């Protein structure tokens, strides 16, 4: 663990998605740790999934949202 002024501590750990060892973050509701890039992608996936669910319930096409979700997922798998 790196120490700085109180409240600025960062945990250096292995990212649960990409495996890089760097500053890691936990997103609310998860136990995994993610690097900066993967945490942003994972948070985007959560938001897009909720949006797809809402739009589906409203009876609107979800093609654009699902396409974006697939693009992000594919990039994370690479």
Note the overall shape: elongated
Helix proportion of residues, in percent?
Answer: 40-55%
* Number of separate domains: 1
Average pLDDT rating? 85
Main-sheet strand order equals 1-2
Low-confidence stretches: 1-5
> Major sheet: size, sense and barrel closure?
2 strands, antiparallel
Helix-and-strand structural type: mainly alpha
Count of helix runs:
2
Describe the structure.
- By secondary structure, the chain is mainly α.
- It has one domain (11-77).
- Helices cover 47% and strands 10% of the residues.
- It contains 2 helices and 2 strands.
- The chain has helices spanning 36-57, 63-77; strands at 11-14, 21-24.
- Strands 1-2 form a two-stranded antiparallel sheet.
- A hairpin with a 6-residue loop joins strand 1 and strand 2 (21-24).
- Helix 1 (36-57) runs antiparallel to helix 2 (63-77).
- The longest helix is centred in the middle third of the chain and has 22 residues, at 36-57.
- The radius of gyration is 16 Å and the shape is elongated.
- The two termini are 29 Å apart.
- The relative contact order is 0.13.
- The model is unreliable at 1-5 (pLDDT under 50).
